Amino acid sequence: MQKQIKEFVFRFIGDYGKLVTPYTFKKDIRNTNPFSPSLRERTKRIAKELASMPNALPLNASNSIFVCVDEGRCDIIKVLISGPDDTPYANGLFEFDVFFPTSYPYSPPKCAFLTTGAGNVRFNPNLYNDGKICLSILGTWEGRPEEKWSSYCSLMQVLVSIQKVILRHFWLKRHAIIRQAKNWIVEMRKDAAEAERNPKRRESLTFESLYNPYHQVNPKLYNFW
Question: CA 13, 15, 21: angle at the middle one, nearest 5?
């Protein structure tokens, strides 16, 4: 039962080869013949990785990874990662599209972040509102040589890296976040004092509207782990 929950099959491509669900890399799908003899080793590698995933994917109450594979093509994947408890991401689901390029495993899989509020929301410095994911293993971010993609890497490593980005961001950045919040409070105090002297410069955002949420978030940031 656990295997079925963490990894399942779905029909992404319907009759006449048309996608039945939105997918970022539709052009790559059209331009790739997965049954080509030249891509045989690629297909074997992908199938081998997917076969090992049900026993490796994390599945727990606080943070899980779910993988959905097209029933006819193993190179078309959707992923859901749940947000961890005690963070602003708790109870959230983050959706990703994944496609294996023809050069796989010598090139990393293509990944796109979909949970962006139609391009209006950026939840994380590494997850852009245009769908870009900044990670060394994907070749979209500079990093140490050992962090970059090689043919020995796998999709599982990519997914765990994305999961860590979601899990660790607020813990790693908590001091900077708190420092910035304190600076905002100082600025708001000045604005409030100026508004008292000059009613024409009153701000709609009051000092209390920032001060109170800061004191609610502060203990959580320090006690994250």
Answer: 35
> pLDDT, tens digit, for every residue of 24-43?
999 999 999 988 999 999 99
Residue 86 CA: distances (Å) to CA of 82, 83, 92, 121, 127: 13, 9, 12, 21, 20
Per-residue buried b or exposed e for 130-144, using 16+ beta carbons within 10 Å of the residue's own CB: ebebebbbbeeeeee
Which residue bears the tokens 């600025």?
187
Pick the CATH number of 2-169 from 3.10.110.10, 3.40.50.10260, 3.40.50.300, 3.30.300.30: 3.10.110.10
Average pLDDT of the segment spanning 189-209:
61
**CA 35: distance to chain centroid?**
30
Residue 68: active-site member? no
Residue for token pair 């024409």: 200
Q: The pTM is what?
A: 0.72
Q: Is the dihedral of CA 215, 221, 224, 225 positive or negative?
A: negative
Which among 74, 111, 134, 153 is annotated as catalytic? 134
Pairwise CA distance, residues 165 & 152, whole Å: 21
pLDDT at residue 48, rounded to an integer: 94
Contact call for residues 40 and 49 (beta carbons, < 8 A): no
